[in-house]
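User: Predict the structure for this protein chain, please.
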Amino acid sequence: MNRNRGVTGPKGFRAAGVAAGIKDSGALDLALVVNTGPGQAAAGVFTTNQVKAAPVLWSQQVLRERRLHAVVLNSGGANACTGPEGFQDTHATAEKVAEVLGVGAVEVAVCSTGLIGERLPMDSLRAGVEKAAQELADTDRAGLDAATAVMTTDTRPKQSWREHPDGWSVGGFVKGAGMLSPNMATMLSVITTDAVLDGDALDAALRRVTARTYDRLDVDGGTSTNDTVLLLASGASGATPDPEEFAGVLEAVAHDLVKQLQGDAEGMTKQVSITVTGALTEAEAVEVAKTVAEDNLVKTALFGSDPNWGRVAMAVGRSRATVDQHKLGITMNGATLFADGHKAADRSEADLSGVDVEILVELNLGDGAATVLTTDLSHGYVEENSAYSS
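Assistant: Here is the predicted structure, written as structure tokens:
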């Protein structure tokens, strides 16, 4: 896996990241990713939140044709809960990209991230699109600039690239540090490939992979209004991959991006994996793991390096999955603390003093299993989110 390359790693893609003046800080805040072909197949997966930002509504519409020529992304403003005017701003953004690239607006997806409820500074945004179009390049630096331009509370850009021996590759970037919960994607991510694939194949692969990667990260239970994952294929390699092999490489890249999200989550001091085995179904395993991941009492115990398995047991029991406490087992960092309905070892057997924490919940009821990634709940998370809009 190569984290020095991203969306410009696959052939047939150019990118740019510029400072358009959307952010008062003067940091990079507008990214443009362009597919130069020869193919323009695309697919997308979006937030399940019933309150959807204008860019999500627009991009859902244009992706009905499973074709994209470009994606424009801005940080510094979510353009969510902005009414009809906000949707008009998104449409105008797509039209501006279409104008400078000489394509149709229906071939342009739009993504935004930042504070909810404010209109975007459209004069700055339009000027930024023109600037980005002039700086488009297929270099690693251009891809990194694009990954940097979408950052909000992220402390570092996140990108990944992997090449298949047959000559095609997959690359991408992601942003996100808070408001992360596995109800689709919970962040903005653009993934590119130079493999020869049609829109239906991309859609099938993306939905399958999203369910096993982006959907398995749950930092705080907050499903964003703007969540978007886009997958674009240029076909520039000339190679048509086996669907299973493509899904495997796509999943490897997506998993790497998700691990980077976890490692840069707001206030993170613990990187936590919660594995549930023995559930009646995979869906019930996910339900249990997600309930544990979102529980504030569990998360604060983890922040204190306290192996409080009782809080884990409580969270497991309040999930909507089938649970039998007399068959339940809980292991923390290799120490089995609870088994068959009673205490199995002293809490001191589990050492949670390091950054990585592994929690294993054994339901012993069936074959369903799943792993969800999360973090602890720290002073830093509370302080950052209590002052986000000020």
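The two ends are 38 Å apart (CA to CA).
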